[in-house]
Amino acid sequence: MAKLSAAQYGKDNIRVYKVHRNKETGFQDVVEMTVCVLLQGDIETSYTEADNSVVVATDTMKQTTYIMAKQHPITPPELFASILASHFVETYKHIHSAQVKVVTHRWTRMTVDGEPHPHSFLRDGAETRNVEAVATEGKGIDVRSAIAGLLVLKSTGSAFHGFIRDKYAALQEVNDRILSTEVDCGWKWDIFGSVKDVEAAIPKFDEAWNGAREITLATFAKDESASVQNTMYKMCEQILAAVPTVNAVDYSLPNKHYFEIDLSWHKGLKNTGKDAEVYEPQSNPNGLIQCTVAR
User: Which is the catalytic residue, given 34, 58, 75, 136?
Assistant: First the structure.
């Protein structure tokens, strides 16, 4: 006999933009984000019996997101995600868990004539600040913060050798190579009992995000990398040491390969090994290295 074993539903890709206007200084601050809301609870009959009486419409989730954004701060995103997730669990008694994902897009204030412009911004990269908050009835709020889409490259200072060589291995060992990746780094906080506990931790969220970003960039640049695996482990260790209230750090780093081009066919032109200057960037397939380091 068939039985519904798991179910959740919600609204994805809710686009939100909020502006704060400082009347005293004339400066404006802007935040743009994309929100996803997913609900779980006593909703089985909506699937098995076509009973919509247990359904909070996904349009209601969208409108609620807009209302919460108007009535509450949306920075740091950890706070807004926690407020929104808690709202659904507290408002609808048959909803026992709400997951809210927030992707904050970059808008960096322009500098014009050597001065910060009061109301003009530029998007200086695809990097985003991501948050996932899960409010669970009787448990509290789980929060994961993350950096995503941070594209980095270094032209030397990376090697890869000593790996398993057998009849299937074609890759040549290298003592020096280009290393490039798109950083996805996340860290899970100790569980919060309520939104008030999240509010009390507000100063820590920006500090942790900036610290994790600085650690990631500095370690990537300075480490004489023997492998992506070892470099990412060093990053995790440092973030755990820097933020005591984080209980786990994870990385997902895809390799962005750059291959040497043999041009010797053209008049003996040297472009390999120590003479390599022109490379061919690759799209796929690519290595994908992941890890989680916990206390």
Answer: 58
